[in-house]
Design goal:
alpha/beta, Arc Repressor Mutant, subunit A, Rossmann fold, 2 domains, two-stranded antiparallel sheet, 9 helices, 9 strands, 17% strand, globular
Length: 217
């Protein structure tokens, strides 16, 4: 039987469910209803139930959801039951900030290497990870079975770098370069365009201000 196709919208909400359930677990809450989860997350209870039904439901009517069980199951769906190895391409301010974020390590994302084109950075360390020349990247990926590459480089370098990463067997690219990458379908790409997020904020501000003007008329 073919595996059920899950929409990107549902997949996009899973990390948020995981985060909220983790907070509930830390608070010692053992059980929660879809309505209470809805109130916390500002997602409708029916949407929560529909999302979870894509994966088997997890709850019982009149009982709600076991927080720890649901947290663990969503973690498995997200592939968090094992470690994932990463490298950073681009050891500037953004690359250093990303590699220094403790929550990645806590979720099983382990940074193994950092690479840059700038010779002045070679030998320096980011959280005990030595910055290496980009020429050593391919062999390092193969030797260390690296799964994920983080691209924190200018967009004019990103396309060729992605090709090199694909050719040496990388499984996924977390792309902070402001360009969309065209890679084979077996390579996963998550594009993080920071300016797009700011433009969405700008849109929200503009929309709200316009609505207030209409209200005052």
């Amino acid at each position: 039987m073919a595996e059920k196709e899950i929409s990107q919208a549902v997949i996009g909400r899973l990390p948020r469910y995981f985060r909220y359930l983790g907070e509930l677990k830390e608070q010692g809450i053992e059980r929660i209803s879809s309505q209470d989860l809805s109130d916390l997350m500002k997602v409708t209870a029916s949407q929560i139930r529909q999302d979870f039904n894509n994966f088997g439901g997890f709850g019982q009517q009149g009982y709600g959801y076991n927080v720890e069980y649901l947290y663990d199951e969503i973690g498995k769906i997200l592939g968090l039951g094992r470690e994932h190895t990463l490298i950073i391409i681009g050891a500037g301010h953004l690359g250093q900030a990303l590699s220094g974020y403790n929550n990645f390590f806590n979720r099983g994302f382990i940074f193994k290497g950092a690479f840059d084109l700038n010779p002045e950075l070679y030998g320096k360390k980011i959280r005990n990870i030595e910055i290496r020349p980009i020429e050593e990247m391919e062999q390092f990926v193969r030797d260390n079975k690296i799964e994920i590459a983080v691209l924190a480089i200018p967009k004019d370098q990103a396309v060729k770098m992605a090709e090199r990463l694909v050719n040496c067997g990388i499984k996924a690219i977390w792309n902070f370069a402001h360009v969309d990458l065209d890679v084979p379908e077996n390579v996963q790409v998550e594009n993080v365009h920071l300016s797009d997020s700011l433009m969405k904020l700008s849109y929200g501000i503009d929309r709200y201000e316009k609505s207030q003007v209409k209200t005052r008329k």
